[in-house]
Amino acid sequence: MIASADIVTYISQFVDLERRGEEFWGLSPFKDEKTPSFSVRPQPPCFFDYSSGIGGNIFTFIKYYFHCSASEAVRKLEEYIGQDADSACNRSMMSATQSFRKFKRHPSNAKTASYTVLPDDIMSRYEKRSDKLQVWRNEGISDESLERFQVCYDAFSDRLVYPIRNPDGKIVNIGGRTLDPQWKEKKLRKYTYFYQWGALETIYGLSENMEFIKNRHEIILFEGAKSVLLADTWGIRNTGAILTSHLNPAQKKLLAKLGCRVVFALDQDVDVRKDHNIQKLVRYCNVDIIQDRENLLGEKDSPVDHGKEVFLKLYEQRKHYT
Predict the structure, then answer these.
(1) Cα 241-244-248 angle, rounded to 5 deg
(2) What is the pLDDT of residue 265?
(3) pTM as predicted
(4) CATH topology of domain 122-193
C-alpha cells in the first residue's frame, strides 16, 4: 500500500539529505540556497522547507516538486511503488503521515475546509524546555500563559512552537518562532507554520478565549499570536489574532457569526480602513479601531509592545468604525 513508501528514501532521489540525529537535512529543492533549510522527518513522515514555507507529506512534496495536481501526484507515487494507488489513496493520506488528512474537492455548494486536522496529542511531541521558553518570558509572557496556550520547544527546527486551533478546538496547524539569532542572515522566517494550509479559516486564540469573548460580548484582534499571550498575561482574555495584517473572508464570516463587538488592534503601520473585508464586517457587527494618536508606539509596533498601561490607554481611546 502507499503508506509503505518511505518519505526519506523517496525525497533522497531529488535532494541530497544528511542525517542529523533522527532528522535529515538538505538544500531546498524549491529555492536557490547555500545553507540547508530543508528538513525531513521519518516519524511522523513529513518535510518542511524553511526557505519557502512549504511543508507536508509525501504527496505535498510531489505536487510542489513536479508542479502537478493531487491526482497526478497519486499517479506518480503509484508508479514509484509499483501498485494501484487508487483504492488506497483515501486511507493512506492519513496513515502515511499520522498528522494529515486528505481533503478532496467537493461540489461548489458543499462546505469544505482547506486546512489539516492534526492529532489532539501532537504537542506532546515537543519539549517544555524552560531555558528556551525564557525568550518569551523575557518579553513579559507569564508561565501560566505559556502553559495555557501550550507553548513548547521544537529542537528539530530550534523554534518555539504553539498549536493553532479552529473554532471547534481542533489543532489545524503548528506555529513556530525561530530562536536562531542569525535568522535574517540565513534568510529564515522569524514566524512560520509547520504545515501547509490554504485559506486561513480560523482566528488564533478564538477557541481558547471563547468563554471570555462571549461574556464580554467583545473580541480584541491582534496580528500575531504573541500579542494574545501578552494580553493573557495581563488578564485580558477576550482576544484573538488574525495571524496576518488583513482580515480574510473566512475570518469575516467567523466574526459575523459571533455577533459581538470587534476591536481591531493591528500593528501601527496597518491602515484598517483600507481593508475591504473589515469594511464589509461593519454590516454585521460593531467595529472599533485602536489607533495611536499620541505617538506612543513605533512605526511597526503592536499596541501591546509597550506594556499594559500603554495598551489600556490606547484601548480607552479606540474609535468606532463608521
Answers:
(1) 90
(2) 96
(3) 0.68
(4) DNA primase DNAg catalytic core, N-terminal domain (3.90.980)
